[in-house]
Amino acid sequence: MTNHELRRKILQMLYTCFTEHPYHRITPNEFTEDLGVTQRVLDFNIVYLEEKGYVELQKPLEGSIFVGARITPKGIDLVEDEKKFSELFPQNR
Question: Which InterPro entries does the record match to this protein (predicted)?
């Protein structure tokens, strides 16, 4: 899976979660289990998405990069704009 495909899947997971439970955050373990990626690969991609403003990370005082993630309004708008979403994060690259 490419980074673009992984980022797309992360955003889709967060979007689905938000539509069901807006204040629920997805944990790193949920991501790694559902997506089949290592923590290192997840961290790289989730921080990228945070820096772009698409996700919000709940950060611990020390230790891991994050303990929970949720999609931002900017991320929701992106997922709902299928053309732009596919341009930025194509499924097959």
Answer: WH-like_DNA-bd_sf (IPR036388), WH_DNA-bd_sf (IPR036390)
